Amino acid sequence: MKTAAYDDLVLRLRAAGCVFAEDEARLLLDAANGSLLEALVARRVAGQPLEHVVGWVDFAGVRVALDPGVFIPRQRTTFLVDLATEVLTGDGVVVDLCCGSGALGLALAHRRPGIELHAADLDPEAVACARRNLGPVGGTVHHGDLDAPLPERLRGRVDVLVANVPYVPSADIALMPPESRDHEPRATVDGGADGLDVVRRLAAIAPGWLAPGGTVFVETGTDQAPPAVAALASAGLDARVHHDDDRDATVVASTWRGCGPWS
Ligand SMILES: C[S@@+](CC[C@H](N)C(=O)[O-])C[C@H]1O[C@@H](n2cnc3c(N)ncnc32)[C@H](O)[C@@H]1O
């Protein structure tokens, strides 16, 4: 793409500090023209994340619609999706807790179109966004705290539970890039003092939902993996750590071997 408009846009984006100005200029010119394009560029130059400005992100091979204020799925989380895909059969029951935009469930539904998919989040804006993404693949999105809104009939029936929960230690949030700090609500990332508050809650509730042999997948920081394993193991789950250097991603996968109190 070599036009005066493109060259001008690259210069404006570069001046605003956009490292990938050429790529961003192409995406913005594809997204809109005229006054709408100008409005999008103004938002980007003011510091809004590109994904919120154009309204989507490519994640694990699918296009995920994204609204401002909703957590932007990170490419490292595709590792969790890859691990979950390996154990998922075509007609499995999948739950995506702390689903945000619904990106994880959407990617799994594309890879295993026969699954029964449920997702849930506490934030109404995330729920609305996830409904937009998961409605077309037959997913159901629930609104509420962690597992509270899930239908009781799923107890003891979940084959794969994916949960990219908030896991940044509270004190580290100040060190995050401004794009995240200023445009993703604190509740999307803040995991408490050691970052593992929600992971511990997840460990406590997971055995009640998982089918025998079912697995819960949760992303953590590398240093957080041992205490996360301890929390999941103390809940009776068989927990293992997976790490991918290329994506700088750590996932704890924990399988429920026993029979839950609901089975
Ligand atoms: C790190 S973001 C991940 C979103 C999505 N899983 C992804 O990877 O793109 C965490 C999400 O957890 C949600 N959340 C935080 N606390 C929650 C809670 N107690 N119950 C349900 N959702 C919660 C936030 O609203 C946010 O959407």
TrEMBL record:
EC nos: 2.1.1.297
Keywords: Methyltransferase, S-adenosyl-L-methionine, Transferase
UniProt keyword Plastid, yes or no: no
Pfam name, any one: MTS
EC class: transferase
Superkingdom, taxonomy of origin: Bacteria
Residues annotated as transmembrane: none
Record protein name field: peptide chain release factor N(5)-glutamine methyltransferase
